[in-house]
UniProtKB/TrEMBL annotation:
A Gene Ontology molecular function term of the record: DNA binding
Recorded superkingdom: Bacteria
Keywords on record: DNA-binding
Keyword DNA-binding appears in the UniProt entry: yes
Name under which the protein is recorded: Winged helix DNA-binding domain-containing protein
Organism of derivation: Streptomyces sp. R41
Amino acid sequence: MVISARELNRATLSRQLLLEREPLTVPDGVRRVVALQAQHPASPYLALWNRLTGFAPADLDAAFIGRSVAKATLMRITPHAVHAEDYPAFRAAMQPTLYASRLGFRFAAAGLTPADADELVPELLAFAPRPRTSAEMQAWVEERLGAEKKEGAWWGLKAYAPLHHAPTDALWSFGLRPSFVAAGTEPALTGRAVEPQALRTLILRYLAGFGPASVADVAQFAMVQRAAVREALRALDGAVEQLQGPDGGTLFDLPGASRPPAETPAPPRLMAMWDSVLLAYADRSRVIPPAYRPLVIRRNGDVLPTLLVDGHVAGVWRPVGGGIEATAFHPLPSAAWDGLAAEAQSLTTLLGEREAAVYSRYGHWWSKLPEAEARLL
C-alpha cells in the first residue's frame, strides 16, 4: 500500500488528536498522544488544550500531583510528560541512550565511572522517596562524593537515575528550580544493553501515536540507534505492517490504525513550543514545510509556538497586549484567520488564568524572522 504525503499528514493529526478535540481525561489524553514534550513547563498544558475538549489546567496539575502523569527525562534526553504506566517501559527502552549520554563528559570529568553510577543510583533513590529540591540532591551528592565531584555527578545522575520531576507551587506545576522524587518503579539498570521488550513496547506506542513512520523516524523520536529499531521491528513481524511512503521508502504502522483520507479537513491550531508533533520525526516535512523549518526550529534548539493551518506550520504566535499576535509566513485565507482568531480567544482566556505572557523570554526570536503578515487576534 502506498500512502501520500497528505495522507501521512492526516494520519499524524488524527493520532495526535489535532483533527478534532476529544472528551478524554488528562491521563487518557496523555496516553493517546504517547508523550508531551515538557522542556517548558507550560507546553504540556497548551498541548492538551489543543487536543482535549474542555481542558482545564487544574486537571493536569492534579495528574502531576497524583502521579498518574509523570514528568521525567526520557525521549531525546529531554523532559517529557507521559502516562505513569508507560514510564517504566519508556525508561528501560531509553537506558542505553541515557547511559551513553550521561555517564560520560561531565560525569567522567569528575573522575566517576559507570560502575560508580550503578552504586550511586540505588542510594540516590533511597534518599528521594519524597520530593527533594535540586539543592537537597546536590547536597546529598556533595556529602557522598565531595564538593569537587558534585556538579559533574549531579549532572549525570539527574537524567540517568529513574527520577520524576516533582510538582511544585509554580504557575505550571514546575518552575526554574526543579524538585525530584524517585520514580517508584525501578527499571533495570542494564548499562549499555538494549532491553528488547521495552523497546518493542516503545515502538508500538510510538506507532499508535505518531505512525506511520520509518526506522529513522522512530530512532529520531527516542534517540535510539537505528540498528536496535530495525531489530525490534523484525521481532514485531505480524504486529506491524509495512507501507510505501511518499518518497518510496518503507514506513511501519499498526494494522487498522487511523489513516483518514487526504481531503479530511484540518482545523487551525496554536501549537505549544516544542510540541511533540513538530519533533517526533526524522522527516519533519509531514508537518513543517522545509522552507519554514529554520524559522521555527532555531539553531540552539528552541522550537517556537506555531500556527498550524491545513495541517502544516504556517507561521508563529506569541501573546501580546492581552491578545495573540499571529505571524503568517504566507498569505492565509480569511477562513483560516477566522479559525485562528477563535483559537486565540480561547487561548487568551486560558493564559489569563495562569501566565498571560507565556514564552515571553523567547520574544527575541521575532526580530530575526523575515517580513511577514502579523495580526493581533
